[in-house]
Amino acid sequence: xxxxxxxxxxxxxxxxxxxxxxxxxRFEVRECTICGAxxxxxxxxxxxxxxxxxxxxxxxxxxxxxxxLYRRRVARWAGLFRTPGAVFEMGCGNGxxxxxxxxxxxxxxxxxxxxxxxxIARETFGITVVEGGPDALDAQARFDLILLFQVxxxxxxxxxxxxxxxxxxxxxxxxxxxxPNFASWQAAFGGAGWFHLDVPRHLxxxxxxxxxxxxxxxxxxxTGISYDSPEHxxxxxxxxxxxxxxxxxxxxxxxxxxxxxxDAANLLHLALGCLAFVPAVALAVISWAARRGAIxxxxxVRDGANLGGETSGGKP
Length: 316
Ligand SMILES: [Zn+2]
Prior knowledge:
- By secondary structure, the protein is of the alpha/beta class.
- It has helices at residues 60-78, 96-103, 115-125, 158-166, 185-190, 208-217, 233-245, 251-256, 264-289; strands at residues 11-19, 26-32, 38-41, 86-90, 107-112, 129-131, 143-149, 169-180, 204-205, 220-226, 295-302.
- It is globular.
- The site of zinc ion has 9 residues, from loops.
- Zinc ion is lined by residues 4, 6-7, 9, 32, 34-35, 37, 210.
């Protein structure tokens, strides 16, 4: 029996046959009986087949809405600091959030895991991007803000990466992590068809308790958790609801990513998705207030860090 890599607790089967919506392959998700963390098994040796060319390439309307919402999130992060500093985003995608921070005066640096992704980020916004993770950075590089936005759940060994990132924080620096919440109402409702389960791309499934414990072991202390995520939470309700009544997983998402053509069945689901959106927003907002939202954003500092004496300042 596998033991939990975070707390050592026994793992029990949660979803024996969760399906990947891209390949149809099935994976098992096990859950820790102590901290509630989940793991996807087996972890594929080669992930290339599970990241198609269209992955996270949305149609222009969806991309535009996401851009507005991300700008709001980025402004909130920047507001944690009295003055702009240096930021590193691991897994920066096309570099959009770093581009927004640079416009606010920040010195920005990103990383991506493939040479092709690095090229896209450099060409899209002209961001400085290294290939790989924290090991690819200059030995002396330190950052006031480190971002791991929808990245940690994709990593095979999140503890090792968090330990390295902790060592990259400047005095008073903050690490901000956005991950799906395996203890959310949406996860419980969606079951194996929960939109943010996303096997096998998501190898880890974190609960607030599990993530705080993992961070603590790497010398990081959680200073705040927020759950409001207008970017990803209401949509997660819509797609998880549709997955409950449709045999084809993530049909709407495939349409929005332009993986499928807009035939009659797909357009029917688009209409159903639009109808479901208002109740989905209501559910999301209530779950945020109850601290059971589908996405959690965790802010942490180096343990022992004195927030009062930091160079870049910051509200508690
Ligand atoms: Zn555990």
